[in-house]
Design a protein that fits this description.
It comes from Chinchilla lanigera (Long-tailed chinchilla). It is found in: Nucleus. With 124 residues, the protein is mainly beta. It has no helices and seven strands. A hairpin with a 2-residue loop joins strand 2 and strand 3. The N and C termini lie far apart (119 Å).
Length: 124
């Protein structure tokens, strides 16, 4: 007669020996792993930068003291001609960059070419 051989799966456990209850499980004594930082709460957004503008009545730049109302000449890079403007105000942004608000002075037909005559210019 043939004998039947029954094989048991290695995955099946004997129900006679149950695992230890949850209260008796070993607690890990190791510190937190290096990947713990990735499991923290969601990152917090940085606050948006607030642009602040500071106005001034005067400014000192490259050894020259400028005030509101001064007339300045600006040389054009392309044609090399001088253009004149009157300073309306000064502003400084959050990066400490200084700027001037200008009112351009437009020459008339009677304006001399070699010098500035304020009576011959109109406000632009």
């Amino acid at each position: 007669s043939k004998q039947e051989i029954h094989r048991r799966s290695a995955r099946l456990r004997n129900t006679k020996y149950k695992s230890a209850p949850a209260a008796e499980k070993k607690v890990s004594t190791k510190g937190k792993g290096r990947r713990h930082i990735f499991k923290l709460k969601n990152p917090i957004k940085a606050p948006e930068s607030v642009s602040t503008i500071i106005t001034a009545e005067s400014i000192f730049y490259k050894g020259v003291y400028y005030q509101i109302g001064d007339v300045v000449s600006v040389i054009d890079e392309q044609d090399g001609k001088p253009y004149y403007a009157q300073i309306r105000g000064f502003i400084q942004d959050q990066y400490c960059e200084k700027s001037a608000a200008l009112t351009w002075l437009i020459p008339t037909l009677s304006s001399p070419k070699d010098q500035f005559d304020p009576a011959s210019y109109i406000i632009g």
